[in-house]
């Protein structure tokens, strides 16, 4: 071997380290793949059960591929007496209003805590964070009494208004705005731009990945919120999807498993669609949070 070839040949220690890193990467990939399969098993069983008759759902061994495939459960869910169309409409109204309202509120709050300077700012922010230590279940009864006095009990507003202020969302956006360059705002102020123009034209576009990530989290938590709807809603016409799924349970406690599984699968479709649409922004936002 020539001297030049020997000089540029990889060192044995470097080759060993690369092999160890490659083996570690493959090992992590195998472990994560196995965990993904484990977590997917209940979902696959639910999809399979939604295409079976009730008597075939609990057969042992499990028949993962229904034979024959029965779509009657989905017909019952969407066009039968227990149609969930109205529940999906109610949940859509609550989710859209909550996302728009919460993003508007927490974006302004996060910008104020992250970019502006005012007296008592840190004390106020710490006091605001301290409210997250109060369990949400403790607020259900006061919230119930409050909305009943306002005449908003048993309305969709009772599900929308509590979600407009979120400690976690405010904290996340505060961290995002605090890491944004202050020089941009100072330069805009020198040029005569007002605070509203600075927020709207400079800092808000920079927060799009964080807002997309928050929109996914808000959608997921609001769409699947069963506890609040159970306490605040009594009129069946105002049921959301989680409450609507309880209609597949009879008075004696038995459950129509086929329609219930079909309804559960249908309720997951909007969540999956929203995540697939915004996953690029979601992953980008989580990566940026992890780098700070």
Automatic annotation (TrEMBL):
GO terms for cellular component: plasma membrane. CDD domains: TM_PBP2 (cd06261). InterPro entries: MetI-like, MetI-like_sf. It is found in: Cell membrane. It is a multi-pass membrane protein. Pfam families: BPD_transp_1. One of its GO terms (biological process) is transmembrane transport. Gene3D superfamilies: MetI-like. Residues 88-278 form the ABC transmembrane type-1 domain. The chain crosses the membrane at residues 25-45, 87-111, 123-144, 156-177, 198-219, 257-278. Its main location: membrane. Keywords: Cell membrane, Membrane, Transmembrane, Transmembrane helix, Transport. Belongs to the binding-protein-dependent transport system permease family. PANTHER family: ABC TRANSPORTER PERMEASE PROTEIN MG189-RELATED, ABC TRANSPORTER PERMEASE PROTEIN MG189-RELATED-RELATED. This is Binding-protein-dependent transport systems inner membrane component. It comes from Beutenbergia cavernae (strain ATCC BAA-8 / DSM 12333 / CCUG 43141 / JCM 11478 / NBRC 16432 / NCIMB 13614 / HKI 0122).
């Amino acid at each position: 071997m020539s001297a030049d070839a020997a000089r540029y040949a990889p060192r044995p220690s470097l080759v060993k380290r690369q092999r160890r890193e490659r083996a570690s990467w493959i090992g992590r990939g195998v472990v994560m793949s196995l965990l993904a399969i484990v977590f997917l098993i209940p979902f696959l069983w639910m999809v399979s059960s939604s295409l079976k008759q009730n008597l075939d759902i609990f057969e042992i061994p499990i028949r993962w591929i229904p034979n024959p495939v029965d779509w009657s459960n989905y017909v019952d869910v969407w066009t039968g007496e227990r149609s969930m169309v109205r529940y999906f409409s109610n949940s859509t109204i609550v989710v859209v209003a909550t996302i728009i309202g919460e993003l508007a509120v927490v974006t302004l709050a996060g910008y104020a805590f992250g970019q502006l300077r005012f007296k008592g700012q840190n004390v106020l922010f710490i006091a605001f964070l301290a409210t997250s230590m109060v369990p949400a279940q403790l607020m259900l009864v006061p919230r119930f009494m409050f909305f009943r006095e306002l005449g908003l009990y048993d309305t969709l507003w009772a599900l929308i208004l509590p979600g407009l202020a979120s400690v976690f969302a405010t904290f996340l956006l505060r961290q995002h705005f605090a890491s944004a360059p202050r020089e941009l705002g100072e330069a805009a102020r020198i040029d005569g731009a007002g605070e509203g123009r600075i927020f709207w034209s400079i800092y808000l576009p920079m927060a799009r990945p964080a807002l997309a990530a928050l929109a996914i989290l808000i959608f997921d938590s609001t769409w699947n919120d069963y506890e609040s709807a159970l306490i605040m809603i009594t009129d069946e016409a105002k049921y959301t999807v989680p409450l609507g799924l309880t209609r597949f349970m009879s008075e004696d406690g038995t459950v129509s498993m086929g329609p219930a599984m079909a309804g559960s699968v249908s309720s997951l479709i909007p969540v999956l669609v929203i995540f697939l649409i915004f996953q690029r922004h979601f992953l980008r936002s989580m990566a940026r949070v992890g780098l700070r």
